[in-house]
Amino acid sequence: MKIMAICGSGLGSSFMVEMNIKKVLKKLNIDAEVEHSDLSSATPGPPIFL
């Protein structure tokens, strides 16, 4: 599973969301690739966008 945290500039908000997602997934023992990015760099497709 791939999860992308997206915000306007891809720096602060999306990074904080990425860290929180990783923390929750670790507690739930779920293996997933989590990244953060800005809205213009995000490409539509299979990843789950938050």
Automatic annotation (TrEMBL):
User: What CDD domains does the annotation carry?
Assistant: PTS_IIB_ascorbate
Name of a matching Pfam family? PTS_IIB
| Source species, domain of life | Bacteria
Tell me which Gene Ontology terms the entry assigns under biological process.
phosphoenolpyruvate-dependent sugar phosphotransferase system
| An example molecular function term from Gene Ontology annotations | protein-N(PI)-phosphohistidine-sugar phosphotransferase activity
Which InterPro entries does the entry link to? PTS_EIIB-like_sf (IPR036095), PTS_EIIB_2 (IPR013011), PTS_EIIB_2/3 (IPR003501)
PROSITE patterns documented for this protein: PTS_EIIB_TYPE_2
Q: Where is the PTS EIIB type-2 domain?
A: 1-50
Instruction: List keywords of the entry alphabetically.
Output: Phosphotransferase system, Transferase
The identity of this protein, by name, is Sugar phosphotransferase component II B
Per the UniProt entry, what species is this protein from, by scientific name?
Answer: Salmonella enterica I
